[in-house]
Specification:
This protein is mainly α. 77% of the residues lie in helices and 0% in strands. The protein contains four helices and no strands. The longest helix has 25 residues, at 37-61.
Length: 95
Amino acid sequence: MASDQNPTENPSMLHGHAAYVAGAAKEAVGNYVSSDPSWKSSATETKDAAIAEMRAAKAQSEGEPGKNETMGKVEEKLGGAVGCEGMVGEGKERQ
């Protein structure tokens, strides 16, 4: 099953972005719905792990020009669709 994969062993830019969004959502819930500080710390941990995974995926894909260019186009389009300027910029940089 895909959810059993360890992101540090097989980092994925897409999974990293999804995990970051999940962390941001958790943070929003913690800020607006719950006064429990564990929501914020859990959200921070999730977002930090997601950033580390995205960096690892980027480092792993460097040196693979065909994959880099294709993934750059995909990342740019997805970033535009979800309104993430960081994804758009990274996507353009990869191309």
